[in-house]
Design brief:
Strand content: 15-25%
Number of strands: 10
Largest sheet: 7 strands, mixed
Number of domains: 3
Strand order of the largest sheet: 6-5-4-7-8-10-9
CATH class of the largest domain: Alpha Beta
Distance between the termini: 82 Å
CATH architecture of the largest domain: 3-Layer(aba) Sandwich
Shape: globular
Helix content: 40-55%
Number of helices: 17
């Protein structure tokens, strides 16, 4: 039988202040199960579980804006607990490493500056646990929407894989490998080949290393400072990566530097109409929402990609991937929207239930939400200066 509690009882049971409960109610993070005619709030056992998750995530370092979408659907208790367990284990492992390092330092007669610097860096790495989780979750949410609702059943990663000419590859580097999706279902003969999968995120690289084992060389690397000697690779893959670089020109210069003469770059990007309907949906709901801090296609897109690449590469060929989305459920779409790089968490967080109803009405009225996709690949060769 479900138990119900007034605000004071609920706060006491959870060992938090009534002020905290009222604040979560005010901002919409934790609404009571129902409000009586006399205005008294009634919280249930299910609300208590939701509060437990909120407090746990807050303790781990997530902001209120980030917690909103994570507790929107709190029905899968096992999944919720497993998430918290994984994050807590990561934090425990980090704290144990810090403790061990401090013990070693305390027993060292003469501390070196390198040891002190290592301690400073290790002390600061706790925030990376949260950042790595958010990066991985956001990437998975974006990939999941495409995998579930794309009309082109070949799938982006399969299509991309089969555009690569492996017959001329002995050494290959993927920049920004993410979760290694390109290689999970597509395998090649690795005899006499060296494949390097790199990402700027240590968490992503560790995930790929765990998934793919020792067949690939998994390294942390910045595309603007590639840690290899000149003319080392036959081919380089940059899948939806180049528009995220701080200095695109520097990144292309580095890619050209480590490619062999006539080496091939495979780089993908989007067109200006890519996912435009999703932008229209969120801005119709609230015109302040911007899903990206930058227009990625203006930095490096299908429309300007050839001009951007032509300084360092020749024989540039554009290949388009024809696809669209037909979305029939609200949650995967909302998860995708909340994973974007803009200001949506701040604006949508307190209004998630309202936004969910809004998306639900769109689906009910139209049966599905059709979304344009414009993605493609540039295949080009390193320009050889005579």
């Amino acid at each position: 039988m479900m138990n119900y509690y007034k605000t004071g009882q609920f706060a006491k049971l959870a060992n938090v202040s009534e002020r905290t409960i009222r604040y979560y109610d005010k901002i919409g993070l934790l609404k009571p199960s129902f409000v009586m005619e006399n205005g008294y709030r009634q919280y249930s056992d299910l609300d208590l579980l939701k509060l437990q998750k909120i407090l746990s995530l807050k303790h781990l370092g997530f902001s209120i804006e980030e917690i909103f979408p994570m507790v929107m659907d709190n029905t899968n208790l096992k999944e919720s607990f497993e998430l918290q367990i994984d994050l807590i284990e990561d934090k425990i492992n980090h704290l144990q490493s810090l403790k061990d390092a401090l013990k070693r330092a305390s027993q060292t007669p003469d501390l070196s500056w390198n040891m002190i610097l290592s301690l400073v860096q290790l002390s600061n790495e706790e925030t990376n646990i949260i950042e790595q989780y958010k990066n991985a979750k956001n990437l998975n949410d974006r990939i999941s929407l495409h995998e579930k609702y794309s009309t082109n059943k070949q799938g982006w990663f399969n299509w991309l894989f089969y555009q690569i000419d492996f017959s001329k590859v002995n050494r290959l580097l993927e920049l920004g490998c993410g979760n290694g999706k390109l290689w999970q279902e597509n395998r090649i003969d690795l005899r006499n080949r060296e494949i390097f999968l790199s990402d700027i995120s240590e968490g992503m690289v560790e995930e790929v290393r765990n998934k793919l084992g020792s067949d690939f060389n998994c390294i942390v690397a910045d595309a603007e400072k590639i840690p290899f000697k000149d003319e080392y690779f036959d081919s380089i893959i940059a899948n939806h990566v180049l528009f995220y670089l701080n200095d695109l020109n520097l990144g292309l210069k580095e890619i050209s530097r480590v490619l062999k003469p006539n080496g091939i770059l495979y780089c993908s990007t989007y067109g200006k109409n890519h996912m435009k309907e999703i932008t229209e949906i969120v801005q119709n709901f609230d015109s302040r929402i911007n899903l990206s801090n930058h227009s990625l296609y203006d930095i490096f897109g299908l429309e300007n990609g050839e001009d951007v690449l032509s300084k360092y590469f020749s024989n540039i060929e554009r290949m388009d991937y024809h696809d669209s989305l037909e979305i029939t459920e609200s949650k995967p779409l909302i998860d995708y929207i909340m994973s974007c790089h803009g200001n949506q968490n701040e604006i949508l967080g307190p209004r998630l239930n309202e936004f969910k109803e809004y998306i639900g009405e769109l689906l009910e009225n139209n049966g599905k939400i059709v979304v344009t996709k414009e993605a493609g690949l540039f295949v080009c060769r390193k320009r050889v200066i005579q």
